Amino acid sequence: MPLTIRDREREGVVILDLKGRLTAGEETAVLREKLRAEAAAGRKNVILNLAEVDYIDSTGLGTLVICYTSLQKAGGALKLLNLNRRNIELLVLTKLSTVFELFNDEQDAVNSFFPGRRIQRFDILSFLQSQRAQE
Known about the structure:
The structure is a single chain. By secondary structure, the protein is of the alpha/beta class. The chain has one domain: STAS domain (Transcription Regulator spoIIAA, 2-Layer Sandwich). The chain has five helices and five strands, in the order E-E-H-E-H-E-H-E-H-H. It is globular, with a radius of gyration of 14 Å.
């Protein structure tokens, strides 16, 4: 399934709604190019909405890190929104959960770009405990 990207903006923050799989090949190239174009246009604060991304492989993870680093060097930031359980566990396992800011509410993710605004950060431990309790 090819990766599709729909872009929108909220309070000057770019939100990219991804749908599909983030895997080796064209999918990761499409995401890298999209983020490169956003940064070139001066839109350096980006949220990736991963609600409809069901699978991320090692190349996909590497792409997320490359994009994060590129935007950070350009003076911006990349934040992740609405990860599913599998993708959260993947970030915890690889310790990338300590690198990326994770959110499960879009307004909190947008607010995180504005100092002084109240935000609710995603609590990985609480999420995993609640998932295990449901099993």
